Amino acid sequence: MADHGFPVTRSIVKVLATRIIKEGGRTETTTVNLEKGPSDVWWSRFKARHPELGSWTVDSLDRARVHGATPEAIEAFFKLYEALYVKHNLEDKPHLIYNCDETGFGDKPRSREKVLCQTGRKHIYQQQQTTREHITVHCCVNASQVMPIGWMGPPSPSMASRKRAIWTRSHFIRYAPEERPLLLIMDQHETHVSKDVTMYCRENKIEILCLPAQTTHILQPLDTAVFNPLKTVFSTMASRMGLVRGDVVVGKKQFSALLKHVYPTAATAENIKAGFHEAGIFPLSRAAVDTTQVILTLIQ
């Protein structure tokens, strides 16, 4: 059930056990109350009989990613990637393999640090130090280091493609090594693979490889190991600023300065390398991909 995206809870297991007993034709049992269901003692013994089972807090996954992150889609990506990896001899050139993407900051991010208070209180409130303004940050890293912070801002749909082209010309080329070819891995958003961007990359010997739709949570290094730590440390620092000055609210004017301060602590070489490793991109390894995040289709 968990493999298909429908993990069962403790209460559901008890209901299923009762149903199995009843469907077996038994009208009474010495270990299970058929009216109330299995007891907590039964549950403990059930888990003892099945040490291969454990309990976790589930992670929600939207339907698009359930049906998009298939073994077939991931295999198709690695076939394309391996061909480029071999063609350009990238096995010892992590500095030539890049991943770029945007991530949003906004909607009242909250620090995950625990606070101290008197026992017995039901609710603890903290003044919000960030506004609800949505701010988009464009990040780019390679398999060995981070690229300096570049373009930021919430682009309108009409400007997003143009801004991507400007970023590629003015920022990516400026900080990327002169050695060629470069491999730039990104998602399939239409603004990422516009005609201007594609032609410019072709002229400058930059290979573009797009990730399959709805697989970035598995195959994108920035998603697997950089963005979450970055947002966590950003929210934590914003909260600490409030302890010094309660009237400080981090909006668009203050955002860049705070991000510049916290960015190096989250986008570390260690996190970046871990992201490329977990995605199986560098070193190239299909086996490194976390297949527990791949939901099997219900019809095999």
From TrEMBL:
Record-linked Pfam families: DDE_1
Record domain HTH CENPB-type: where: 1-56
Keyword DNA-binding listed: yes
Keywords: DNA-binding
GO molecular function per UniProt: DNA binding
PROSITE patterns: HTH_CENPB (PS51253)
GO cellular component: nucleus
Domain of life where this protein originates: Eukaryota
UniProt cross-references to PANTHER family, sorted A to Z: POGO TRANSPOSABLE ELEMENT WITH KRAB DOMAIN, TRANSPOSON
The protein's name: Tigger transposable element-derived 6-like protein
